[in-house]
Amino acid sequence: MAVQQTQVIDVLKTTFVPGLKKMLLSVGMLREVKVLVDKVYIAVTIPKISDEDVAKLKEVITNRLKQIGATEVEIEIDFKKEQKIKYMIAVGSGKGGVGKSTVSVNLAVSLAKLGKKVGVLDADVHGPNVPIMFGITDRPYVNEEKRLIPIEKYGVQVMSLGFLLEDQSTPVIWRGPLVTKAIEQLYNDVEWGELDYMLIDLPPGTGDAALTVTQTLPLKYGLVVTTPQNVAIADASKSLRMFKEMKIPVLGVIENMSYFICPKCGAKSEIFGHGGGEKMSFENGVPFLGKVPLEMKVREGGDKGIPAAAMDEETETKKAFLEIAKKVIEIAEK
Ligand SMILES: Nc1ncnc2c1ncn2[C@@H]1O[C@H](COP(=O)(O)OP(=O)(O)OP(=O)(O)O)[C@@H](O)[C@H]1O
Ligand SMILES: [Mg+2]
Fold first, then answer.
1. Domains of the chain by start residue, with CATH
2. Tell me: the pLDDT tens digits for 17-46?
3. 314, 315, 321, 327: CA torsion to nearest 10
4. Sequence-ordered list of residues with C-beta below 8 angstroms from that of 51, at least 6 positions apart, any chain
5. The model's pTM
6. Which of 12, 79, 78, 80 is nearest to 40 (CA)?
7. For 143-172, what is each residue's pLDDT tens digit?
8. Ion ligand 2 residues within 5 Å by Cβ
9. I want to staple 281 with a disulfide (CB 3.0 to 4.6 A). Which of 107, 158, 191, 288 is the partner?
């Protein structure tokens, strides 16, 4: 009896994977389905399970497909590669525009300069800015295993949702389940290789994407970016609470735009007030990682795709990020 491809997919959708207690297509990726009248070929990639469970899974699928008329069933199962990432750190903030992306990008470049293997995962589904800040215009290459290869820039492996969108300037309306799927793909279906650090640039706030990252990715730490003024601190505290509720240790707080450096005379002024980030760290019992000045060259670098940390020029910001990177290493690896 002829079998339809949709019938095969329905079977796969409703088959439990022994050992994982989840439906096949919710944990696995269907690489291929071929149906030739009553002969079926399936190739799937799933998380690692035992040989025994693989045999059981094949048996269940084969029996179910035979019930709907298949006479020959061939199933190829391979395993998702384990990502080897030592320290996965999500960079969050309570509100937008405080400099999460700037911090993620510059901290990543600084960690790489200190000899670490570093990746940045841009999980900002609503405004993936990381490609612009890194000045990346290429699209990632997909290997034979259908895995995406991150793009290397300034010694950092970069992957962003922005790379996968047809047109980065058209807003995409993401529903909750799509956000979850997209973020899982940016982690699971990317050939990250071995990394010491992965920084995950979150969208502002504690919405779907931030929650997905904290719930589904194996985070070691959360990191909070704030600006010095009181209102910003109140917002940033929400992000701190989210990490605490999810039982993710907070590596520390970074205060961005701490003081303004006049491009003409070099004078410093604390336009957003003073000491907010330090106070917040102290009150919440988490480390204070350092201050980043508000410097024109940083914004210009962000727009041009040359992060301050990657510039030849020795700016205050470059120095600040290098010091913060050293502190991050000291705390994360202690
Ligand atoms: N220390 C700084 N000095 C100068 N400009 C900065 C600094 N930090 C951030 N900016 C600029 O401020 C803008 C917002 O920064 P950024 O995009 O990093 O914030 P964000 O928190 O990631 O924002 P969003 O919430 O939209 O993701 C950018 O144009 C960036 O170049
Ligand atoms: Mg951002």
1. 5-79 (3.30.300.130), 84-332 (3.40.50.300)
2. 998 888 998 888 888 999 999 999 999 989
3. 70
4. none
5. 0.82
6. 12
7. 887 889 999 999 999 999 888 776 656 555
8. 100-101, 129
9. 288
